[in-house]
Amino acid sequence: MPQLAYVDGRIVPLRDARVSVEDRGLQFADSLYEVVAVLNGRLLDWDGHLARLRRGLAELAIDFPMTDAALGIAARHLVAANGQRQALLYLQLGRGAAKRDHVFPKATRASLVMTVRRFDFAARAPQQRSGIKVITQPDLRWGRVDIKTTGLLPNVLAKQAARAAGAFEAWLVTDDGTVREGGSTNAWIVKDGIVITHPMSPHILPGIARATLIRLARDAQIRVEERPFSLAEALAADEALLTSTTAPLLPVVAIDGTPVGTGTPGPMAARLAGLVADEIARQTGWRG
To answer: Catalytic positions, please?
Structure first.
């Protein structure tokens, strides 16, 4: 089937999808985005993505009059029109097009684009069994990482460094050695049966998969601590893992070439991955 995109109320062939050269998302990264997993043709954690998007719009004072219900209908219609059962829905919403000026224009029409591309979630199964490697990179991002804007150049550079090193991800580390998160994932360690991840703050993205895992773990009586942890702690941890929409949960078996724990996926990662798989099946009916 042809690839179709949504551009400001119209579904068009992807090759014909366009935004203005004066779109503020293009010129200033004055825009937000969400990436939503589609499994069995159903949107995973849609309410969480929508809530994060609305919060970002409020933080940036972007007026987007479409209702939540209408946005959900448009997103699901695009997914169905593309005929993809396992895919990623990309949604980008910005302030719109205006004469280039740093200050907010007085009157613009918010711009919404969406695309759908096939994604093989089942390919994550071998990575769950073997674990993945991460490297570390300095955290060069701006001070409001909690707003999911399209200004991702530091993340791009970190992810490219990981690719060049043969690693899956780069963990972003501050000058004092604190691990914040990955280039496109949230970071976790396990020590003495306690699952630890950086607390919510302007310095990390409020990951949807992160929130889901915390809820599932606590429901299962697994102790979760939301606190900063250092790279030294991570290297001394029993286990490590990461979460994201595109990699719901993957064990981390090496950091900068140093094995974590036994250097193989551990029992806590396996237990948590099972909880996540059950939640995905509950919402969508999909099992990898």
So the answer is: 148
CATH architecture of 4-119: 2-Layer Sandwich (3.30)
Residue whose token pair is 């630890």: 196
Please give the full DSSP string across 24-91, using - where no structure is assigned. HHHHH--EEEEEEEEETTEETTHHHHHHHHHHHHHHHT------HHHHHHHHHHHHHHHT-SSEEEEE
- The pLDDT tens digits for 69-127 are 999 999 999 999 999 999 999 999 999 999 999 999 998 999 999 999 999 999 999 99
pTM of the model: 0.95
Domain locations in the chain as residue ranges: 4-119, 124-284
- CA nearest neighbour of 244 among 31, 33, 35: 35
Model pLDDT for residues 40-74, shown as the tens digit of each residue: 999 999 999 999 999 999 999 999 999 999 999 99
Class of domain 124-284: alpha beta
